[in-house]
Write a structure and sequence with these properties.
CATH architecture of chain B: Orthogonal Bundle
Radius of gyration of chain A: 16 Å
Largest sheet of chain A: 5 strands, mixed
Strand order of the largest sheet of chain B: 2-1-8-9
Order of helices and strands of chain B: EEHHHHHEEHHHHHHEEEHHEEH
Structural class of chain B: alpha+beta
CATH class of chain B: Mainly Alpha
Shape of chain A: elongated
Number of strands of chain A: 7
Strand content of chain B: 5-15%
CATH architecture of chain A: 2-Layer Sandwich
Structural class of chain A: alpha/beta
Number of domains of chain B: 1
Distance between the termini of chain A: 59 Å
Distance between the termini of chain B: 53 Å
Shape of chain B: globular
Helix content of chain A: 10-25%
Oligomer: heterodimer
CATH superfamily of chain B: Cytochrome-c3 Hydrogenase, chain B
Order of helices and strands of chain A: HEEHEEEEHE
Number of domains of chain A: 1
Number of strands of chain B: 9
Strand content of chain A: 25-35%
Largest sheet of chain B: 4 strands, mixed
Chain lengths: 146, 395
């Protein structure tokens, strides 16, 4: 029987696939390859469930983790974007379930998913002016509403 | 004495959690639904970065008052994975007991809410009375009715005694009888069928498209259950079935939850009869080495996924939480499209929204040509019950 890991290695030739433990696989791609990779996962592996998107401020860039779920395995696609150009292609067209998760990215970390149809605030107030709370250099005193 | 004016709402303890739905209507038909959340956003993810892992145990538990244990289970699993700690079998069994007791009380609670939304308040009174039996068990073992503070990193904080086991088993006998009654009522009662059959249709294709989770997708025939797909705690060795129906409507979501009650009872009986001896806690260091971990559990409402990034200190670098309600919000719009305004309360209730039953609904009639009218949830419920008694039956 072919494991999910072997399947991923077959369809994503040349992309580093890390098996962290049973049921947990990490794939690292540059942001320019994100759409291509997600497309392959959806079309060739038939990945249908996007669990969520995690974003993290590492201090010099934003790391994005797209958690997919297939046959009991959490497949995480890891990518990143620099702090001075915080944009990444939106995957809403491939996974419509990403619509709220990408809005959340934009809201609390200031990462812009390009091509997203609706980037109104999701968690923060409509009149929020206090910057992006999940950035590491953000201080609670900066937060506020107009 | 002068009159006293007492302001009530929109933010008020008597109201359920706040949320805003903007519903676009064409006559009685729903054309579009827009959901605004965030009124109860507390910034827990940011707050967690400033607290130690031990402090965070109790913060994570307070993400939700109903499915608090699913969250703290995820947190403990994440930290234990990075620490490389294997907890004892007894602790795993006790954790699973709490996960299932939580599912029981949550499903009983939901059944009552569903009854309430369709004007069937007798069902609401019955199920909430039965839910107290579960709450009493939780209190007996942990000392708390909600936010049990049972989990700690490396195990559980309180033991389940022989006496507790007997009382849990006795309670399961009672709850099984009650669940059998609800099954009969749920599937045979005319009022429930009329209000739920063929209402809020969610086709499997749409459920998959939007990555929905939990009983919502299982009622559309998709057998997704993290307990089976990626077993955690002691689910791998505990016999139970994943419940699905293929009716794709609100009735299906009732059936799935009622049948899941029987499965939870089965699991709890197995756990109580096979509870292994052993220590409760494994000792763990305060500092967590650098690493990352993903943990997900099948909370009563569906997949609850957490991500932890640690940095070698005693505080997390980043903690991310995605609750099941967030995953199910996008399909609400799909389920409501082309349904009657009167079906809105029960269809929305059918995903069992946790972070907010809404306090206000803005109606935009006739595709927004006229100004919107602000309606509160109680008025909408009264409207929908009236609409069903007056219009539909005479038609």
């Amino acid at each position: 029987m072919t494991t999910t890991e072997e399947l991923i290695s077959q369809v994503l030739q040349g992309v580093p696939v890390q098996v962290k433990r049973e049921h947990r696989i990490f794939i690292t791609v540059p942001r320019t390859d994100l759409i291509k990779t997600v497309n392959i996962l959806a079309s060739e592996l038939n990945v249908q469930h996007l669990s969520t998107i995690t974003a993290r401020d590492t201090g010099f860039e934003f790391e994005l983790l797209y958690h997919f779920f297939l046959n009991g395995v959490v497949i995480t696609v890891r990518t990143s974007c620099p702090r001075d150009d915080p944009t990444v292609d939106s995957i809403v067209k491939i996974f419509p379930g990403a619509v709220l998760y990408e809005r959340e990215l934009h809201d609390i970390l200031g990462v812009v998913p390009s091509g997203h149809p609706d980037l109104r605030p999701l968690l923060l107030p409509d009149n929020w002016v206090g910057g992006y709370p999940l950035r590491k250099d953000w201080k609670p005193a900066e937060g506020g509403e107009e | 004495m002068a009159n006293v004016k007492l302001p009530i709402g929109p933010q008020h303890p008597a109201l359920k959690e706040p949320e805003n739905f903007t519903i676009t209507l064409d006559g009685e038909r729903v054309v579009d639904v827009d959901i605004r959340i965030g009124y109860t956003h507390r910034g827990i993810e940011k707050l967690m970065e400033t607290r130690t892992y031990t402090q965070n145990l109790y913060l994570v538990e307070r993400i939700c008052g109903i499915c608090s244990y699913a969250h703290v289970q995820n947190f403990a699993q994440n930290v234990e994975e990075i620490l490389g700690v294997q907890i004892t079998k007894r602790a795993e069994y006790i954790r699973t007991l709490f996960l299932e007791l939580e599912r029981l009380h949550s499903h009983f609670l939901w059944l009552g809410v569903a009854g309430h939304e369709i004007g069937f308040d007798t069902l609401f009174m019955y199920t909430w009375q039965d839910r107290e039996v579960v709450q009493d068990l939780l209190e007996m073992i942990s000392g708390n009715r909600v936010n049990y503070a049972m989990n700690t990193i490396g195990g559980v904080r309180r033991d389940v005694s022989k006496d507790h086991q007997k009382k849990v088993l006795d309670a399961m006998d009672y709850l099984e009888k009650r669940a059998a009654y609800y099954k009969e009522v749920g599937l045979g009662e005319k009022t429930i069928l009329a209000r739920t059959q063929g209402i809020g249709i969610l086709k499997p294709k749409i459920a998959l498209k939007y990555s929905a989770v939990g009983p919502t997708v299982r009622a559309s025939g998709i057998a997704m259950d993290i307990r089976k797909d990626d077993p955690y705690a002691s689910y791998a060795e505990t016999p139970f079935e994943v419940i699905t129906t293929d009716t794709c409507d609100v009735l299906g979501r009732i059936v799935v939850r009622v049948l899941e009650v029987f499965e939870s009872i089965k699991i709890i009986r197995y756990l109580m009869k096979h509870l292994p001896p052993g220590e409760l806690v494994v000792k763990v260091p305060r500092k967590v080495p650098e690493g990352e971990s993903i943990s997900h559990t099948e909370a009563p409402r569906g997949e609850d996924i957490h991500y932890l990034r640690s940095n070698g200190t005693e505080k997390p670098e980043r903690y991310k939480v995605r609750t099941p309600t967030m995953a199910n919000l996008p399909v609400i719009a799909e389920m409501l499209k082309d349904s009657y305004l009167a079906d809105v309360p029960i269809v929305v209730a059918a995903i069992d929204p946790c972070m907010g039953c809404m306090d206000r609904v803005l109606l935009i009639k006739d595709n927004g040509k006229k100004p919107g009218e602000l309606v509160d949830w109680d008025r909408l419920r009264a409207y929908s019950n009236r609409w069903y008694t007056q219009k539909r039956w005479k038609a």
